[in-house]
Amino acid sequence: MRVAFEAAPGGVQRVALAGSIDENADLAALFAQLSGPTIMNLRAVERVNSMGVHRWVPLVSAFSAQHRLEIEEISYALVQNANVVANLFGAAIVRSCVAPYFCSSCNENVSVTVTGKEVAAHTFGPPPKPCARCGTPLEFDELDGYFSFFKARRR
């Protein structure tokens, strides 16, 4: 797992994770470096296994219980886990995820950022998104329950 830190306005710390959350990821060292309000971008997390989840949950839960933690752009791999592990993000505020769409005009698969607010506002089916290249409406390319974790967190 690779980690990139950056300072954000207002004393907020930004951190971006990339690679795998697994038994080789030093999650304890990562969370030991975090303090205060944090925004975590998870777009580049490509793989998550059960040992990674087992180590991640207590650390993110403890950190988010003590500090404001916002999570953005949850990767496809993490969305799959968020839909089966109820406390995957502890008390963090989950802002957005990356979702698979398809452009029939460009004949390309695209990953699009979708916010929780967009999901909440669009009660039937996935939020509509235009192709960034040609403007054609994209087709959602995943099962209907993909955004379930957003709905479960609102309860």
Structure explained in plain terms:
It is a single chain. By secondary structure, this protein is an alpha/beta fold. It has two domains: 1-94, STAS domain (Transcription Regulator spoIIAA, 2-Layer Sandwich), CATH 3.30.750.24; 100-144, no CATH class. The chain has helices at 27-32, 50-66, 76-82, 116-121, 148-153, and strands spanning 2-7, 13-21, 38-48, 69-72, 93-94, 96-103, 108-115, 139-140. It has a five-stranded mixed sheet. A three-stranded antiparallel sheet has the order 7-6-8. The longest helix has 17 residues, at 50-66. The model has no long low-confidence stretch (mean pLDDT 94).
Q: What is the name of the CATH superfamily of the largest domain?
A: STAS domain
Cα Rg: 16 Å
Look at the structure and give the CATH class of the largest domain: Alpha Beta
User: Order of helices and strands, N to C?
Assistant: EEHEHEHEEEHEH
- Strand segment tally: 8
Which parts are unreliable, with pLDDT below 50 for 5 consecutive residues or more? none
Number of helices: 5
The major β-sheet equals: 5 strands, mixed
Outline, from the CA principal axes?
A: globular
Percent strand:
25-35%
- Mean pLDDT, nearest integer? 94
Q: Kindly report the spatial arrangement of strands forming the biggest sheet.
A: 1-2-3-4-5
The computed structural class is alpha/beta
Assign a percent range to the helix content. 25-40%
Q: Any idea of the CATH topology of the largest domain?
A: Transcription Regulator spoIIAA
Oligomeric state? single chain
What is the total domain count? 2
Please identify, by name, the CATH architecture of the largest domain. Answer: 2-Layer Sandwich
Distance between the amino and carboxyl termini:
32 Å
